[in-house]
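S1.2 Input.
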Amino acid sequence: MFNPTQAEVRRFFCSTHAKQQAGQPMEAIETLAGLWIAEHPQFHGELADVQAALARVYAEGAEQANPFLHLSMHLSISEQCSIDQPRGIRQAVELLARRLGSLHDAHHAAMQCLGSMLWEAQRAGRPPDGEAYVACVQRRATAD
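S1.3 Output.
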C-alpha cells in the first residue's frame, strides 16, 4: 500500500504543477492530478513554491484550505471511482455529478462524506466504513 509522507505529497503536487506549467511530459497520476490542479487556480501560488509548501502549517478549521489535502481527496475519489472501490462509489459519484451538473461539485460533496467517514473511523478506533461512505454520497445524489 502506498503511504507517502506529508513532504512527499506536497512535493508531488508542486512538481506536477511545475511540469504542467512547463508543458513537460507527465506520468498518468500526474496528468490526473494536473486536471484537478487546473480546476483550482486559487492553489497555484502555493504549488509554485516547494520550500514554502513544505514549511507551511495548515490549522484545522482555518479559513485557508489545505490545498494538498484538498487535491489528495480529489485524487482519492477519482481513483475510487476508477476501480469502483468501495463498491458503488462510481455510480454514486456519477449520479451526484448529474444532479449537481458538475463532476467537480460532486467531488466536493463526496469529500464531505469521505472526511466524515474517516473522522468517525479515527474517533471510534475502527476501520473506515466504505458502505457508510457510499450511502452518504448516494443520499446527496438523491436528496430533494
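S1.4 Remarks. DSSP finds eight helices and no strands in the chain.
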